[in-house]
């Protein structure tokens, strides 16, 4: 019998991310009335992936806020739900609006979403992006 201990992803980060080639972070902040945790102006940067040139505005919730993934997700989903109308307007203007999940995933580790979380994400109508680093932590 193969018995594996189920482990969760570690150092998770849940974010609301807005991207666009002409995105100006200083215009997004007052429009949403939310302070970002990170911004990036359009153009090349030595710190980003090759070819990454879009501007970016993001609100992240990570281990500095809570080590619990579900608390991180609830925090970001609550922000997105509160600002749904404004975020839809940004999407209609051509900006990419996503909810992003990131974490470190070792062998046989999982990132399980609860049914209520899946429902909340689906009702928002914005894409969900999930990315994992396979480095052992």
Q: Can you give a write-up of this model?
A:
The longest helix is centred in the middle third of the chain and has 14 residues. The radius of gyration is 16 Å and the shape is globular. The model has no long low-confidence stretch (mean pLDDT 85). Helix 2 packs parallel to helix 4. It has 4 helices and 7 strands. By secondary structure, it is an alpha/beta fold. The strands form 2 sheets. The protein has a 5-stranded mixed sheet with strand order 3-4-2-5-7. A two-stranded parallel ribbon has the order 1-6. The protein starts with 6 loop residues before the first strand and ends with a strand.
Descriptive keywords:
137 residues, globular, alpha/beta, single chain, 5-stranded mixed sheet, 4 helices, two-stranded parallel sheet
Look at the structure and give the mean pLDDT: 85
Give the percentage of residues in beta strands: 25-35%
Q: Stretches where pLDDT falls below 50 for ≥5 residues?
A: none
* Strand neighbour order, sheet with most strands: 3-4-2-5-7
User: What is the radius of gyration computed over CA atoms, rounded to a whole number of angstroms?
Assistant: 16 Å
From the spread of the alpha carbons, the general shape counts as globular
Helix percentage range:
25-40%
- Helix and strand run: EEHEEHHEEHE
The total of beta strands comes to 7
Tally of individual helices: 4
């Amino acid at each position: 019998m193969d018995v594996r201990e189920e482990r969760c992803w570690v150092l998770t980060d849940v974010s609301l991310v807005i991207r666009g080639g002409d995105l100006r972070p200083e215009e997004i902040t007052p429009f949403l009335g939310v302070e970002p945790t990170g911004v990036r102006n359009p153009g090349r940067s030595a710190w980003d992936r090759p070819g990454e040139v879009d501007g970016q505005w993001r609100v992240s919730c990570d281990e500095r806020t809570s080590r619990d993934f579900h608390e991180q997700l609830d925090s970001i989903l609550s922000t997105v739900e509160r600002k749904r109308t404004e975020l839809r307007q940004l999407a209609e203007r051509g900006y990419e609006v996503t909810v992003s999940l990131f974490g470190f995933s070792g062998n046989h580790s999982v990132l399980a979403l609860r049914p209520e979380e899946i429902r909340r994400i689906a009702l928002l109508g914005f894409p969900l992006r999930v990315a994992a680093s396979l480095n052992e932590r």
